[in-house]
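All the exercises in this workshop are built on plain-text protein records. A record pairs a protein's sequence with a compact description of its fold. The structure tokens are whole numbers drawn from a learned vocabulary of backbone shapes. Once this layout is familiar, the rest of the handout is easier to follow. An example says more than a description, so a record of this kind follows.
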Amino acid sequence: MTASRAVLRALRLALARSAVEGFRLAVSVIGAKQAGRKAEDLTEGLDEGWLFLLVAAGEERLAAVALDPGLVSAVIQQQTIGEVLPDPPAPRPFTDTDAAIVAPLIDGMFARATELLEDPQDVALLSGYEYVSRAADLRAVSLALVQEAYGRYELTVELGGGARQGVAVLLLPDLSDDSDPGDSRNTPAEKRLAEAAGIMRAELNAVITRLQLPLAELSGLSAGDVLPLTGARLGQIDVLSIDRARVATGRLGQCGGMRALRLTGKSVSPSVSTKDAGTFVEHVANRVDPDKSESEPLEADASEAAHDVLVSEMSVSELGQDDLDSIGTDQLAEKISELSGLPVTRSSS
């Protein structure tokens, strides 16, 4: 019998709180998944170079927690030097001393997780576990865990504010012995998909425009400096994945009193031209109506900036290159004003 998703959520929160409150170590769970396993498949995917802790709840229930070297070394570094180094740890065999240093993190996680659960069956699944000993290798883990059905909970974490990543795998015995967690034929497809995907974080970045600056100018920037957003269009925002690849385009607006982005398509938007710097137009925020539930384009926010872009496009499309080379700046300004419908003030020659 696979536990409810509430158990996985409680473990995620409890691990982060145990690290912060017990070790002053910043931990963020960026991935989590759970699945049912038979005893013979329990250690699949684990590596011999991990640290294996045996935890027990009374005399009848014995479980195991596997921690990868990245997580173990981060906890030890935080305890010894007060910070997590970004360099990956060198491979080495773990000892009982390593287990004793890391054990309070796991004990605190179980204690806090039971406090976050409400269902009595979920509470019973996690309650009472404490560290008892270290298992030397995967074979020792397999020999210690003799129950037929187990739940496997895998947590992927960021450590020290993103300095490093680590993995913790919990192997907990099910409360019921008559279940068959390895048989997924009677499990709904939605549940199997949820177990496989787990809880993952997807980061997307919305890019309004791009600027190219000389290194000297970039180095000299300070608070209060103004950068003109040349060619910025709130109706054509690039949406980038975590690897900076364009995945979609969108339109900036408002939803529920917050800034929102409505996706408009998957087409790749053209590159933003930064050759000519335009006049900076101060952004004037619209009054937000929290009762509105649909995204509203921010037309008023960028009306002047969008108008400048429109005027530039019209002038290029209407005037040929020869015309641009032959006329003066005053004539060009009059032509642009005429095309855009603005009042024309002709200078006396």
Observations:
- Confidence is low (pLDDT under 50) at residues 177-187, 195-199, 268-325.
- The chain has ten helices and twelve strands.
